[in-house]
Amino acid sequence: MLALGAALALVAPVSAAPPAPQPATRLDWKDVPNDAGRALDLTWVLSPDDKPGLGLVTQYLVERSTSVGGPWTVVDSASAGADKVTDESVRRNTPYYYRVVTVGPGGATPAGSLTGPATATSQWLDTTRASVLALTALFFAFVLYYIRSAQMGKKPFVRRIPGIDAIEEAIGRATEMGRPVLFVPGIQDIDDIQTVAGLVILESVARLTARYETPISVPVSYPIPFAIAQEMVRGGYLQAGRPEQYNPDSVRFVSPEQFAYVAAVAGIMLRDRPGAHIFMGSFYAESLLLAETGFSTGAIQVAGTANVHQLPFFVVACDYTLIGEELYAASAYLSGEPKLVGSLKGADLIKLVIVGLVVVGCALESFGVHGLTQWMATQ
Amino acid sequence: MKRELPLTITAGIGLLMILSFFVPHQVIAVPADFIQASAIIVLAFSYFLGGANLLRVNIDGIYKREPGWIYKLVLVVSLVATVAIGFVEGKGFLDQGRISKWIYDNLYSPMQATMFALLAFFIASAAFRAFRIRTLEAGLLAAAALIVMMGRVPLGNVLTDWLFGLRWLPFPGVPHDLHLSTIQEWIMDVPQNAAKRAILIGAALGVMATGLRVILGIERSYLSGED
């Protein structure tokens, strides 16, 4: 047996283990800019053995300690060929020391050097958002100016928006037919500003239904908009001077699940046969399901959304559609309050500024000047 | 006070959240994060409110034997049973082999899919109405839609392959050939995108204007009609 073993050893000699890789060098750190002091960027020069095809390096382990002497903890790793990581587990204003261990089939080579003390600090201004800040400040200034001038008695002109005028027409039609009005404030929660806009319009709609003594039905998909919708409808009846007609059950919570909500609203359309359907808010795939079901009942339909992909469906299936910003203008338009209307003029003026920036930006880019484009690019 | 306090809270939190977009410093970032986390907690509790309303309205309908009361009964039983099973199963209620998981896979998902599938029929009926050519604009819409639809399927390209060599419309930015896939790409990239971006920019400004009106307390209808 011994002789056989010796013979096999001669035929198939055991290959020598690869050597441990040479260490990565010149480890450096940099505080991640424009953050709250929650991350550090680390870079190093690859091990001389980290070359494609050699297979001597498999990964780099990034170790961290709060003192030069350790103890060291592995906080991140990078595969062979990678020369940077971002440590997002740091505490701000705490000094850290880092080192990189190079790992290969031949073993792990401790770092030749370490770097530190590295400290993550927070900044007061996100410079990548400076252009947004400038335009936001300008926009706010315009809006405040027009609100102020409206307060001083200068009521700005606002063009007619047929879709908003149609809301009263739709409620009038439902009243003539002796049928209720259905108001759908979208399927998103209150953190979507379209829901806010829809609920604000709801108050004006409720005021009109109260005036015409027409029942209103408001199915809501989330609990917080549900509570606000109840307040809006109640407020509308109060403003119309008919608080006794307010029915708390006119606003009902249905379901935050998209298609469960659709099923419930379609059921209301087909069972109660409202004379008018008003869709105002954020809609997704359910837009066509609701609008087409509504169309089949013969009700007059008015819709408004800023979700661009749903607009064609509403345009096709509804009698009137508020497009994009018209949804946000509706509450100001319906109320006619000078201060609210003034804010619309501010938005119009900033649109002119944006058009100007687009034209100037196109011209500069055409001549190879990229400064404006780079300033406008945000993260 | 009934009005001033909510308006002050709205203005304070609104301004803080706007600032948090521009100021990454912890003085702003930490309270902003806290408020966002708090909003999630408030939202979780608000479901009790919604659930209570759902039960009240439907139980009332069942009690009064309103038309379709049997469906309300199904809804109430399903709601109570699903919640109860979820509570009993506790953590990991959606793991394989659990009843909640079975309900999700065999009842909830198929019903969702059924509703979604209806969209196919509604798109057909809506498209039929949309593409009736009664005006010049409707004609342009129908033509553009036809080109885009045909240009996105192999059949459209097969039909127009023979036109590929013809160099027409030598204007800058306009496709040089009459290959349907090229024309549909141009329609989607240029006129469609331009219109879409215009709507998006307008909508974004509308969002800001609405937000500003709420923060400044000019838009206060959400506080109800009482003074």
Task: Tell me briefly what this model is.
Chain A has eleven helices and 14 strands. Chain A is of the alpha/beta class and 379 residues long.
Keywords:
heterodimer; A: 379 residues; Immunoglobulin-like; Rossmann fold; 3 domains; six-stranded parallel β-sheet; 14 strands; B: 227 residues; mainly alpha; 7 helices
Q: What does this protein look like?
A:
Chain A has helices at 2-11, 130-151, 162-177, 193-212, 223-239, 258-272, 286-297, 311-317, 325-335, 338-366, 371-376; strands spanning 25-31, 40-45, 59-65, 73-79, 84-87, 96-104, 107-109, 114-118, 181-184, 216-220, 251-253, 276-280, 300-305, 320-323. Chain A is α/β, with parallel strands linked by helices and 379 residues long. Chain A folds into three domains: 19-118, Immunoglobulin-like, CATH 2.60.40.10; 127-142 and 340-376, no CATH class; 155-336, Rossmann fold (3-Layer(aba) Sandwich), CATH 3.40.50. The longest helix of chain A is centred in the C-terminal third of the chain and has 29 residues, at 338-366. Chain B folds into three domains: 1-89, no CATH class; 93-122, no CATH class; 131-215, no CATH class. In chain B, helix 1 (4-22) crosses helix 2 and helix 5 crosses helix 7. Chain B is extended and about 70 Å long. The mean pLDDT of chain B is 85. At the A-B interface, helix 2, helix 4, helix 5, helix 6 and helix 7 of A face helix 1, helix 2, helix 4 and helix 7 of B.
